[in-house]
Every structure is written in C-alpha cells, then in structure tokens.
Amino acid sequence: MTGHRPRVADPLLNVARGLLMGAFDVVPGVSGGTVALIVGIYERLVTAIGHGSVTLLDLVRGRPRESWERLRRMDWALLLPLFAGIVLALLTGARLIPPLLEAYPVQSRALFAGLILASLAVPLRRVGQWTPGRAGAALAAAAVAFVLVGLPPAEVVDPPLVLVLGAAMIAITAMILPGVSGSFLLLALGMYTPTLAALDDRDLGYIAVFVLGAVLGLALVARLLTHLLTTHHDLTMAVLLGLMTGSLRALWPWQTEDRTLLPPGEHLAATVGLVLLGMVLVGSLVAAGRRREPLLSEPDQRGHPGPSARG
Fold first, then answer.
1. Percent of the chain with pLDDT strictly greater than 70
2. Which helix (H) or strand (E) element contains residue 95?
3. Cβ(155)–Cβ(165) below 8 Å
4. Fewer CB near the last or first residue (10 Å), C or N of the chain?
5. Does the residue 1 lie in any domain?
C-alpha cells in the first residue's frame, strides 16, 4: 500500500480544516485539536510539528545542513494551507465569535457540546483494545479536564510581555490536545480578553511575542506527542478521549459566569435541537474525512494509525 499522494484539491481542503481549527480555538471550552482529530489529520499534524521542532533544535545546535534537510522533508503540503486557514480564522473569529457567545451563551454552548459529543467516537474508535490501565487513564484525564474547565475566569489588564510568552506556551499546548481548550486556559489565566484585543487591534508587538511562545510550546509538546502516538498509541488515544469527555463540563449550556453549573432551564427545546445539529455536523465531517484521507484517518487492525500517519 502506497503512502498518501496529494491531490489538487488537498490545499483547499487543508485551508478549510485550518479555518475550522482556528474558529474552534477562539471558543473557550473547545479545542482546535479536536477538529484535527475529527477530520483525520491529528497524527499527521503532530508528526509534522514534531519534525519542525527537531529542525529548530538542529539549527540551535549549529547543524544547519541537518536542519535544512529536515526542513525540506517537512509536510508543507499540510502545514502551509492549514496554518493559513488557522490564522485567517483567528483574525476574523476574534471579532465575530465572542459577541455571539455573549449574546447567545446557552445556544452557543449547546451547539459546541453537540460537536464534542459526536467527536468522542473518533478517539474511541482508535483505541484498539480496552484494558484496565487504559480505562483508568481515560477516567483520570477526564477528571483533570473537568477540574480545569471549571476554573473561574480571570482578567489581566495590560499584561507584561513575559506573561504573554508564558501564556502562549501553555495555551498552544492545550490547543494541540483534543478536549483541552487553549482559549479556555487563556481565560482562566486572565489573558483571553487582552489576546483577542491584540488580534483585533493588530498589535504586532503583542502578537510577535505570543507567536514566539506558541512556537516554543509546540516544539516541546509535539515531540512528546509524536513519541507517545508511536509507542503508546492506544493509551494516548484513551487519554485524549478522557480529556475530550471531561471538557464537556465547559459546554454545559446552563451555567453562571463563574462556571457554576445550573439545572436545565430556558430554551430547552432549542438547546436540544442545537446539540443534535452539532452532532450531525461532526458526523458529516468525520464521514468526509474518512472518504478523503483513508490512509490517515483509519487505524489498522490493532488500532494504530496507518503508516502515513505515523510518518
């Protein structure tokens, strides 16, 4: 079986995936990594980012030739259009999505809850065989995510650039993990509002420091994830499933501003309908991803990613 061969439509498809990832990353409680998992590019993306981190490391160590060779072999067919879509979505979403969440909080959370509920089938399908250890890891990850997304929001006014750097490293780590929202952690750190304001105002100094922190954070976490997906694939998928499940707490439609959960209340029928709509949308995305990227979205008989996904 041959590896993945790019098609003419792939760049446009990857831009669309990037738009979805970026849009999700703006929403507190929803992770862009979830979208990557849904559309079947998660392992491929993590592997590509991991190669990029090694490239940077070679350059820092004074090995320009090795760095250049790795740079040439990187999966640019995926990375360039994907990140173009992410950046475009972040710039537009920073202006459009927060007002929508503020005006329709119950309905918005219901829609996103449906998206995440349906997407749980993706990592569940990729766990080849459940064992007590994998089940325990999934439950522990769910508990951690449940606690994290229950943290009350904070607010930092005029943050120093050192804090911007650190917050970016933390947030980007979460953004690549399905279920753990980078936007939500920014909100808990008090950095969500100033970051969106910097994007909306085109504050190049703030944005440059944030991008630097994001690059450093990606370099650290991608290598670890690449190793885990290669050597402990089923356990890693079980943990990702737990993170996604626990993160659903943030998307319970009825809650107070400090994240206290409330019983079902207003707009009950519309809320249920939006949950179902979200599940249908994700089902369509999963089906499209499986048709277009069979080598990258289908696990083998042992539950491991296909050869091209492992890089």
1. 83
2. helix 76-103
3. no
4. N
5. no
